[in-house]
Design goal:
This protein is an alpha/beta fold. The protein has 3 domains: about 325 residues, Aldolase class I (TIM Barrel); about 140 residues, 3-Layer(aba) Sandwich (Rossmann fold), CATH 3.40.50; about 110 residues, FAD/NAD(P)-binding domain, CATH 3.50.50.60. Helix content is about 30%, strand content about 15%. It has 22 helices and 27 strands. Strands 3-4-5-8-9-10-11-12 form an 8-stranded parallel beta barrel, surrounded by 7 helices. It has a 5-stranded parallel beta sheet with strand order 15-14-13-16-27. Helix 1 links the parallel strand 3 and strand 4. The structure holds iron/sulfur cluster (SF4). The site of iron/sulfur cluster has 14 residues, from helix 10.
Length: about 675
C-alpha cells in the first residue's frame, strides 16, 4: 500500500515471526455485538469491513479468560465452546487480508456481577459492588486461565492475543498500590505487584508458541492516587519484554480517573509524550494511543520515532476505510471524539455505533446496496441529516442535488466547531465537502429552496432536512438588545458582555458557558494545547508524581461571570450531558467558576436585567447579556409548499422532529431514509 504522504504509517512492521502490513492497530472496543444475537456473524462483518479498509492489526473487544473476570453477567468468556464462534470472526478477517488478535480482559473489581474478585477487597468508586480478594492459589489459577485462553484463541484462528493490563482492570489493580494491599508473593513490593502480568505474559507465550503475537496493553499513565510511579512503569515494561511480549500497546488513565482521556476536550496526541518515554525503556515496538484521529498526526508520531505503531479505536468506527483512504489521498470521516454513539451507548447497555457513521456495528442490518432504480433526488438543507442522506443516496446510485441556504455545508456543526475542545467537528464538514464532491453530488450553496427552485430541478423525490433554529421562550422583554440566541453568541462571542446569564442548561447551555469562560473566547481549530490541558487537569508532565497525578487545579482563569440557569432542580445540572464525557464538561465549567442555579421560573427582562423566581425567592440578574439556550424548533415551514409539487417529500432530522433532536439522530435519520429510496 504505497503512499508518498504517509510512508511511515503504511510501512510494514516485522515482528520476526509475523509481518503486520502497516503501522495501524485497531484498538479494542466493547461494541455490544459480543453478546448480541448472531454476535459472531455480526462481529465478523464489522471486523471484516475494517480489514478490507486496510487496517494493519485488529484487536477484538475484551473477552475474559475465566468466569470471574467477565465484565457483566452475560459478557464473553473464552471457553472451548466459544472457539467455533470465534472462528467465524477470524476467517472473515483473514479472507480480507487482515490480522486479528483476541483481547484477554479480566475486569477484576470493575465487573458488574456478584462474583467479582480483585487483589484486595477494595471497591472502586465507579462500581458499588465490593470485590472478594483472591486467594494466593486463585491468583495462580487466574494466570493459568490466561494461558489456557491464549491457547484457545490460537485454536480459534487468532493471530495472537492482547493481554489487557491497563485502564484499571484486574492486572492494573495488581500492579498499583492503590488496589493491591496483599502481603503474599503477589503484593507489597513493586516487584511482587508486577509479578502477576509478567507471569501471565510468560505463561501465554509458553502455551501459545513462539509464532503467536502477544501484545501487552500497559497503563503508561494511571492518573489516579496510588497509581504506579514512573520507575515502576519502566520496570514493568522491561519485565514484559523479557517475559516474551512482541509489542507493548499503551493505555491512559483508569476508568475511575477524574481526568478526561479520550473525550473531545483532550487535545490530539495529548499523551504521546508518555509513550515516547516508555519506548526508550524497551527494544520491542511500542504502540501510541488515545486521541490519535488523523493520518497526519499518526505519521508525525511515527516519523519522529515517538512510537512504532498507532492505535485507533473510534477512528476505525467512524471510517472503516481510514487506512485505504489515507493511502489513496481520499477524504476520511474523522472521529470527532464526541462519544455520543459509541461509549455512551456501550455504557448504557446499547449497541455501539458512531454518530458520523451510523453503519458502524450495523454492517449486516444496514447493507449499503445499489438502489433498484436511479432517481433525481433534491435534498433541502446541508446539516448532519441532509449530508448523511446525500452521501448514502449518491452511493446507491441516485442523482443528488443538495441545496443549502448558508454559505457552507454543515448546519449546526459550523457552530459546534467553535466551542473550545470541539474543534474536530470542523473535520466532519471538511470530510463531507470532499466526499460529496467525489460522489458527484451537486451542492448549491447560498440558495433558498422554494417550490419554484425545486420544480426546476424536476426531482423524483424531495428530502426536507432544513434543520432547526433556536426556540424563543415565552418571556416578556426578550426583544431587548441585551438578549441573544445561542447561535448569535457562538458566532459572535466578542459581542457578549462580561456579566452573562445563560437561560437553559442543556448541552447547548454548557457549550455556550464553556465558550464564554474560555480565556480566549472562541478558539481556532487545532488551537488546543497539551501543556495547558495537562496543567488544568493536573497531569504531571515531569512524571515525578505517582500516577502522574498532581493536585487538581480547581480554579481556572476566566474574565467573565456566567450564570447558568435551568427550570429543573439544581441536582439535575448536567443530567442531559453525555454519559461518558458529561462529567468532564461539568467540571470544566465549574472550575471556571460558572454559577449554576436551578428551580428557576422566568418572569421578564427589563432595564434592570432578568427577573426570575428561584424557588420562592425573587431574584434579578443584572446581566449585560442574556443568552437563550432553550431548545430548538423547525427552521421553516417549507413542507406545505413543497407538497404542492406532486412528488414524494420526506422530512428528516429537525425538519421532522426538533424536540429530541441531536446529531446522532440526525445522521441516522438521513442514512436510514436514503437507504429506503
Ligand atoms: Fe468518534 Fe463520536 Fe463516532 Fe464515537 S460516536 S466513534 S466519538 S465520532
Amino acid at each position: 500500500m504505497p503512499s508518498a504522504t504517509y510512508p511511515n504509517l503504511l510501512a510494514p512492521l516485522d515482528l520476526g515471526h509475523t509481518v503486520i502490513r502497516n503501522r495501524t492497530l485497531m484498538g479494542s472496543m466493547h461494541t455490544g455485538l459480543e453478546e448480541a444475537p448472531a454476535g459472531y456473524e455480526r462481529q465478523a462483518a464489522f471486523f471484516a469491513a475494517r480489514a478490507r479498509g486496510g487496517v494493519g492489526l485488529i484487536v477484538t473487544g475484551g473477552v475474559s479468560p475465566n468466569a470471574a473476570g467477565r465484565l457483566a453477567e452475560r459478557a464473553s468468556v473464552m471457553t472451548e465452546e466459544a472457539v467455533s464462534g470465534h472462528r467465524i470472526i477470524t476467517q472473515a478477517v483473514h479472507a480480507e487480508g487482515g490480522k486479528i488478535v483476541l483481547q484477554l480482559l479480566h475486569a477484576g473489581r470493575y465487573a458488574r456481577h456478584n462474583e467479582l474478585v480483585a487483589p484486595s477487597a477494595i471497591a472502586s468508586r465507579i462500581n458499588p459492588l465490593v470485590p472478594r480478594a483472591l486467594e494466593s492459589e486463585e491468583v495462580e489459577q487466574t494466570v493459568a486461565d490466561f494461558a489456557a485462553a491464549a491457547l484457545l484463541a490460537r485454536e480459534a484462528g487468532y493471530d495472537g492475543v492482547e493481554i489487557m493490563g491497563s485502564e484499571g482492570y484486574l492486572i492494573n489493580q495488581f500492579t498499583a498500590p492503590r488496589t493491591n494491599q496483599r502481603e503474599d508473593a503477589w503484593g507489597g513490593s513493586a516487584e511482587n505487584r508486577r509479578r502477576f502480568p509478567l507471569e501471565i505474559v510468560r505463561r501465554c507465550r509458553a502455551a501459545a508458541g513462539s509464532d503467536f503475537i502477544i501484545i501487552y496493553r500497559q497503563s503508561v499513565l494511571d492518573l489516579v492516587d496510588g497509581g504506579n510511579s514512573w520507575d515502576e512503569i519502566a520496570d514493568q515494561a522491561r519485565g514484559i519484554e523479557a517475559a516474551g511480549a512482541d509489542l507493548i500497546n499503551t493505555g491512559i488513565g483508569w476508568h475511575e480517573a477524574q481526568i478526561p482521556t479520550i473525550a473531545h476536550m483532550v487535545p490530539r496526541g495529548a499523551f504521546v509524550w508518555a509513550v515516547e518515554k516508555l519506548k526508550k525503556q524497551v527494544t520491542i515496538p511500542v504502540v501510541a494511543s488515545n486521541r490519535i484521529n488523523t493520518p497526519d498526526l499518526a505519521e508525525e508520531i511515527l516519523s519522529t520515532g515517538k512510537a512504532d505503531m498507532v492505535s485507533m479505536a473510534r477512528p476505525l468506527l467512524s471510517d472503516p476505510e481510514f487506512v485505504a483512504k489515507a493511502a489513496a489521498g481520499k477524504p476520511i470521516n474523522i472521529c470527532i471524539g464526541c462519544n455520543q454513539a459509541c461509549l455512551d451507548n456501550a455504557f448504557t447497555g446499547k449497541l455501539t455505533t458512531c454518530m458520523v457513521n451510523p453503519f458502524a456495528c450495523r454492517e449486516t442490518e444496514m447493507p449499503l446496496n445499489a438502489a433498484p432504480a436511479a432517481k433525481r433526488i433534491a435534498i433541502v438543507g446541508a446539516g448532519p441529516a441532509g449530508l448523511a442522506a446525500a452521501s448514502v443516496a449518491a452511493q446507491r446510485g441516485h442523482n443528488v442535488t443538495l441545496i443549502e441556504a448558508g454559505e457552507r455545508i454543515g448546519g449546526q456543526f459550523n457552530l459546534a466547531c467553535r466551542i473550545p475542545g470541539k474543534e474536530d467537528y470542523a473535520e466532519t464538514i471538511r470530510y463531507y465537502e470532499g466526499h460529496l464532491r467525489d460522489l458527484g453530488v451537486s451542492v448549491l450553496l447560498n440558495t433558498r429552496a422554494d417550490a419554484a427552485a425545486l420544480s426546476r430541478l424536476q426531482p423524483d423525490e424531495i428530502i426536507l432536512a432544513s434543520g432547526v433554529v433556536p426556540r424563543i421562550p415565552d418571556i416578556a422583554g426578550l426583544d431587548r438588545a441585551s438578549v441573544m440566541t445561542y447561535e448569535e453568541a457562538i458566532a459572535h462571542p466578542e459581542r457578549v458582555g462580561d456579566d452573562v446569564v445563560v437561560v437553559g442548561a442543556g448541552g447547548v447551555g454548557f457549550d455556550v458557558a464553556a465558550l464564554l469562560l474560555h480565556p480566549e473566547g472562541a478558539c481556532a481549530p487545532g488551537e488546543s494545547d497539551i501543556a495547558a490541558f495537562s496543567h488544568d487537569w493536573g497531569i504531571d508532565l515531569d512524571y515525578a508524581a505517582r500516577g502522574a497525578l498532581l493536585q487538581a487545579n480547581r480554579k481556572w482563569p476566566s474574565r467573565r461571570t456566567v450564570y447558568l440557569l435551568q427550570r429543573r432542580d439544581r441536582s439535575k445540572f448536567g443530567a442531559g450531558l453525555s454519559k461518558t464525557r458529561g462529567w468532564a464538561n461539568f467540571l470544566e465549567v465549574m472550575y471556571r467558576g460558572v454559577q449554576m442555579i436551578g428551580n428557576v421560573t422566568y418572569k421578564n427582562v427589563d432595564d434592570d436585567g432578568l427577573h426570575v423566581d428561584v424557588g420562592d425567592e425573587s431574584r434579578t440578574f443584572k446581566a449585560d447579556t442574556i443568552i437563550l439556550c432553550a431548545g430548538q424548533e423547525r427552521a421553516d415551514e417549507l413542507l406545505a409548499e413543497l407538497e404542492t409539487l406532486g412528488v414524494p417529500v420526506h422530512c428528516i432530522g429537525g425538519a421532522k422532529d426538533p424536540r429530541e433532536l441531536d446529531a446522532v439522530h440526525a445522521f441516522e435519520d438521513g442514512t436510514r431514509l436514503a437507504l429506503s429510496i
